[in-house]
Amino acid sequence: MLRSYPKAKRIKEIRNCFPSLAYSELVYLDNAASSQTVDTSIKAVSDYHYNYRANVHRGDFKISGIATDIYDKARKEVAGLINCEDWEVAFTAGTTHSMNMLADWIPLETPVIITELEHHSNILPWMRQGRTALNGLLVVVPANDKGSIDIDMWEIACKSNPGAVASFLTQSNLTGIELPWKDMCRIAKESDCTTVIDACQSIGHKEIDLQLNNIDYMAFSGHKMYASTGTGVLFSRGGFNEKESYLGGGTVSHVDFDHYVCVAGPGRVEAGTQNISGVHAIGAAAKWIKEVTYKDIQECEAEFFNMLQEKGLFAIEEMKLIGDIGPRSVYTFTFDDLHPSDVAGLLDFDNICVRTGHMCAYPASNKYSGGKGVLRISSAPYNDEHDCVMLVEGLWKAIKKLSKIK
User: Which end of the chain is more exposed for a tag (fewer CB within 10 A), N or C?
Assistant: First the structure.
C-alpha cells in the first residue's frame, strides 16, 4: 500500500519537470547511464532549432548573436554550478571525449594512478598511449570488498609516484559508492600529483565546489545531469591557454602556410561547430540544478532509499548488494544462481528499466561478479514510491519465476 513520505510532495514537483515521466507509468531506474531530460533543457534545444538556428561566434546577424549569447551564458551557468571561472570550462562531447583530450596533454613518461573501480573512459585513454600496469606507467589501486578503496593504499601509491597524474572518479558507476575523493585529492597533492576527477556520477546528485578542493582537471557529461546526450564539460584550473587539441574552425586567430596562432580561452579546444543546442541544454540543466538545489536532490534520493528499504529490496536473499546498505544514488547487486540479464528481461515486461552487464567497468565488474555481470538500480530525485513498489514486486516475481525454471 502506498503511504505518505515527508519528501513525497517535493519528489512529485521534481518529477513534473520531466515530460518523459510526468504522465507516464515508466519506472526508470537507469539514471547512472543517462538521466531523463528536464523540461528546461528540452525547451532550450527546441528554442534553438525553432528560433535561432545559426552558428556561434561567427555570424554578424541577429540570430547568430542570440545563439552566441546563450552559448556563452551556458558556460557561465556551468561555471557557477561548480564554482569556477567561466574561462576554465570547455565544452566537449562528454566525459569520454574530455578524458581522451586530457590524456593527450600528459607527457607519455608520466605515470598515471587510477583505481580498480574506474570507468573505461578513465582506463582506455591512458592505455591507448602505452601505459599499462605491467610497465609501471599505469598504477592501479585495488578496490576493497566494500566497493571502495582503502585510503592507505591510495597514499602508498601517491607517495611511491611523486609528480604522477592521479586520475579517479568521485563515485563508482558500478558500485554506486562515493570514494573518499576529497582525501584522495589532498593526499595526491601532497605528493605533487596532478589531480584529474571523473565527476560523471556525482554532478547530477552532489555539489562539487572547485574553490574548496584542489582539483586540476574535472570531466562530466550533460546526459547524466538532466541535459542532452553528446555534450560534456572539461574543467581546467587556470584555463586552456597552454593547451591544444583538435584544430580547425574557431580555434585560431591567424593562419598562413607557415604557422598558426591559437585564440585565448576555451575556444582553442572547441574546434569546429560544437553541439550548440546541447550546450544550451547543459546550461539550462545547470541552472535548474541550482534552483532545485543539491540539498533537495539529496534529500529526495535519501527518501527513495527509505522507500526501498521499507519495501524490502535489501532483504531479497538472492540479491547480494555490493557495499553496505545506505543512501546513495546507485545500488548494485550480484546473483549466485540467477543471471542478472534474465531478471532485467522480466522486469522490462512491466516497464521497469534497470541496467545489467559490466557497466563499462570490466575490471571492477569481474572482481565483484566473477565475470557474470551485475544488476544496477540507479535513482534520481524524481523516483517515487510507485517506482519503488513496482521494482520490488517485479524483482520478487522475476526471481520466483526464474527459480522455478532453474
Answer: N
At 299-358, the pLDDT tens digits run: 999 999 999 999 999 999 999 999 999 999 999 999 999 999 999 999 999 999 999 999
CATH of the domain at 301: 3.90.1150.10
Question: Mean per-residue pLDDT for 273-290?
Answer: 97
Rounded CA-CA distance 86/204 in Å is: 19
Is 37 domain-assigned? no
Locus of grid cell 607527457: 107
SS3 for 292-352 is: HCHHHHHHHHHHHHHHHHHHCHHHCCCEEECCCCCCCCEEEEEECCCCHHHHHHHHHCCCE
The model's pTM:
0.95
Number of domains in the chain: 2
CATH code, domain carrying 71: 3.40.640.10
**Residue 33 is placed in which grid cell?**
547511464
